[in-house]
Amino acid sequence: MRFEIMRLDHVDGTTVDSTVVDAASVNQIVQQAAAIGQRLWIRPADTPAS
């Protein structure tokens, strides 16, 4: 499964940037964001129909 992780502006909550990662990478990204007080929005990434 893949997830879209969006980094949010700490003032108004708008999306600053986003990336799509696999499930194994989500925990590492969350831990890094928590260490510096970054706000994230994580949701399942849209996957193209096969």
Q: Percent of residues in beta strands?
A: 35-45%
**H-E string:** EEHE
Q: Distance N terminus to C terminus?
A: 15 Å
Question: What is the number of strand segments?
Answer: 3
Low-confidence stretches: none
Percent in helix: 25-40%
Mean pLDDT: 92
Over the alpha carbons, how many angstroms does the gyration radius reach? 12 Å
Q: Helical stretch count? A: 1
Largest sheet: 3 strands, antiparallel
C-alpha geometry: flat
Biggest sheet strand line-up: 2-1-3
Topology of this structure?
Layout: E1 2-8, E2 15-22, H1 23-36, E3 39-44
Antiparallel strand pairs: 1-2, 1-3
Please, could you describe this protein's structure?
The protein has 50 residues and is α+β, with helices and mostly antiparallel strands. Helices cover 28% and strands 42% of the residues. The chain contains one helix and three strands, in the order ββαβ. A three-stranded antiparallel sheet has the order 2-1-3, with helices on one face. The two termini are 15 Å apart.
The gist of it:
By secondary structure, this protein is an alpha+beta fold.
Q: What key attributes describe this structure?
A:
single chain; 50 residues; alpha+beta; 1 helix; 28% helix; 42% strand
